Amino acid sequence: MKYLPFIGGAVIALVLWKRPADPSTYTIRGNISGLETGWVFMYHRSGSPTDSASIIHGRFELTGMVTETEFCHLVFKKVSGDNLFSMGFFLQPGAISATGNKNALASLTFTGAPVQDEYEKLLLDEMKQPENARAALVEQYASAHPASYVSVEEVLEYFSYNPDAGTLKHIYNGLAPEIQSSHMGKEIKEILDAALLTGVGRPAPEFTQADTKGEPVALSSFKGQYVLVDFWASWCGPCRLENPNLLKNYRKFHSKGFTVLGVSLDEKKDKWLAAIRQDDLPWTQVSDLKGWKNEVAVQYGVEGIPMNFLLDKEGKIVARGLTGPSLEKQLEELLH
Q1: How far is CA 192 from CA 146, 155, 301, 303, in A?
Q2: Which of 11, 17, 279, 286 has the fewest CB atoms within 10 Å, counting from its CB?
Q3: What's the mean pLDDT when you consider all of the chain?
Q4: Contacts from 145-148 at CB under 8 Å and sequence distance 24+?
């Protein structure tokens, strides 16, 4: 998924002060011991401009406007620009105090605003669950707290990548109207709409993009073959690790009517082409070099890579998200 990674840590306390006169204004005053100088950036999920401030003797101040509660990321950097650490938190109108110690990497904490407190409690509950049980816990939480911003954030966290359309539709329909109309709620609706269009049994949405030579390639030109539409990028480590598995299956089943159509989320053509050569990928590759804004990726609701869609000879989707042994097993069943 497309969230800022955790790059270290700090003990952080977010304390809600008296709300300023303007109910949509926020002020974050920070004091991070051990971080004498540097920069802090706040990335808004809503797409609002990134806020930034210099850090002098561990202190900084960020101010701005917020129209609704939203999940943001604070990223601390050295003067050189290198990342130190990143943490997500819920931003609400008001005056917020951020304090902590840069060296306490194992003790990251958030306290203060009501939504942040709610979020921290749910995270503790999630930590007690096995990985495969956390999504079920989030689904239950969203059902019990339909008007919570924490619910919608965690639904995005656990149900954005390769979602089951039926499950996501049920969760979304259960959210309160004000949450559905929030920025994060609209994100879920976009993901749901794409999932409904690209579910198993649906005809794969048609598209055309340029190949490595700049020539247009239409998905419909592959009809009559089983084709794996594979979303990847040169900079994606898990994608590159999966490429040998794709290559093995391509060589095993290509003579039986199977092929791959790679859709790259690269922005630099030279890096894209170099990765194709390095990984020895013989199949057709296309890209508009728009990164995460790749028009086909947006059309198919791709929120994380590697991601793929297996189409039958008529262009209908027969499986999604096949990696490792699951791809070979599916192809064995279809092309035995």
Answers
A1: 17, 12, 8, 12
A2: 17
A3: 87
A4: 146/174, 146/175, 146/176, 146/179, 147/175, 147/176, 147/178, 147/179, 148/115, 148/118, 148/179
DSSP label at residue 300:
T
Q: Do 291 and 277 touch, CB atoms closer than 8 A?
A: no
Question: Tokens 């082409």 map to which residue?
Answer: 273
* CATH architecture of structural domain 208-335: 3-Layer(aba) Sandwich (3.40)
Distance from CA of residue 198 to its chain's centroid? 18
Dist CA 91 CA 159 (whole Å): 22
Tell me whether the CATH fold assigned to 13-112 matches the one assigned to 208-335.
no
Greater model confidence, 295 or 30: 295
Q: Where are the alpha helices (DSSP H) in 161-291?
A: 165-174, 177-180, 183-197, 237-253, 269-278
Domain definitions of the chain by residue range: 13-112, 129-197, 208-335
Concatenated DSSP letters for 79-104? TTS-EEEEEEEEE-SEEEEEEEETT-
| CATH 1.10.10.10 is the classification of domain 13-112 | no
Query: For residues 250 and 72, what is the distance between their CA atoms, to the nearest angstrom?
Result: 41
Q: For residues 106-121, give the mean pLDDT.
A: 68
d(Cα 201, Cα 226) in Å, to the nearest integer?
14
Mean pLDDT of 124-130: 81
The CA distances from residue 266 to 39, 106, 212, 237, 276, in Å, are 28, 34, 12, 13, 12
Query: For residue 104, is pLDDT > 70?
Result: no
Mean pLDDT computed over 265-285: 97
Q: Any residues with CB less than 8 A from the CB of 26 and at least 6 apart, and which?
A: 62, 63, 64, 65, 66, 91, 92, 93, 94, 95, 96
CA angle 286/289/292 to nearest 5° reads 105
CA distance 310 to 330: 9
Query: How many C-alpha atoms does 16 have within 13 Å on its Cβ side?
Result: 15
